[in-house]
Amino acid sequence: KVEIEELFALAYGSLATAHFSQGRVDKSIETYNRVLELTPLSAQTYNCLGSCYIRKQVPDRAVRAIKRAIELDPESAESYHNLGNAYTLMEQWPKAMNVFKQAIALRPDYVEAYNNMGIVLQRSGSFEQALAAFEAAIEIRPEYVQALFNLGNTHLELKHYDQAIKYYRAALHLQPNMVKALYNMGQAQYKKGRLAAAIQSYRKAVHIDPKHYGAWYNLGIAYRDKGLKDKAVEALEKAVALNPNLMR
Question: How far apart are CA 126 and CA 143, in angstroms?
Fold first, then answer.
């Protein structure tokens, strides 16, 4: 009987994972709950259930599920990391920081935990500490695009525009179609007065994502400052067509 229940639990677990990967989160939750009926002491299943609730933006239920996972397996770095993500969603910065630190203590090379801890530090205004966390992530994994992008964002907030551009370029070297990096690099270049470079970045952004009204708008502003009135009007018209609120 136990073997049969375990086999069914494995099958349901695989099905739940497939539902989650294909965006059917409610079905995934339903199926993980069936797994727990068969194997009620599965820490991994509770952690996966927590991930579902994070995806659904229901962090309180995520916290309950993941805490149960940690009770069952206190050595799971993945569960601590997931709990940190749930607390981040709740904007409970100190709690998120503590559990990210626990994840890193259990797995010192956990680059995702360093990156997400950096995001928490950035959002709570501790920019220098955020830089250190992101740098720790790329020291372990130099081609970790998200940490490179977040380093650019933090330097941009600190008005370290040359450093921001450097990290956006590094991210784009690895992921050339990363619209967010192109757009933010345009922002940093504009702040430095490099209008031609900013225009090039915004143009690449709208080429990849023609519905990015922010890039169209800032492209129009850069064209205006460059003295290219007709191009400025054209870009601004496209921005307003995509987001009429820009006229308010």
Answer: 24
Q: Are 205 and 187 in contact (CB under 8 A)?
A: no
CA 205 to chain centre: 19
How far is it, in rounded angstroms, from Cα 102 to Cα 70? 11
| 201 contacts: CB under 8 Å, gap ≥ 6 | 182, 183, 185, 186, 189
How far is the C-alpha of 227 from the C-alpha of 245, rounded, in Å? 25
**Pair of tokens at residue 110:** 């956990």
From first to last of the 248 residues of the chain, give the pLDDT tens digit.
Answer: 457 667 777 786 888 889 888 899 999 999 989 889 888 999 999 999 999 999 999 999 999 999 999 999 999 999 999 999 999 999 999 999 999 999 999 999 999 999 999 999 999 999 999 999 999 999 999 999 999 999 999 999 999 999 999 999 999 999 999 999 999 999 999 999 999 999 999 999 999 999 999 999 999 999 999 999 999 999 999 999 999 988 76
Any alpha helices (H) in 22-126, and if so which ranges? 25-38, 43-55, 59-72, 77-89, 93-106, 111-123
Phi first, then psi: give them for residue 190, nearest 5 degrees: -65, -45
Please name the residues in contact with 117: beta carbons below 8 A apart, sequence gap of 6 or more: 84, 96, 97, 100, 101, 104, 133
**Can you say whether the dihedral through the CA atoms of 134, 137, 139, 144 is positive or negative?**
negative
Q: Beta strands of 67-155 (E only): which ranges?
A: none
Cα 52 from Cα 117, distance rounded (Å): 21
| pTM for this model (two decimals) | 0.89
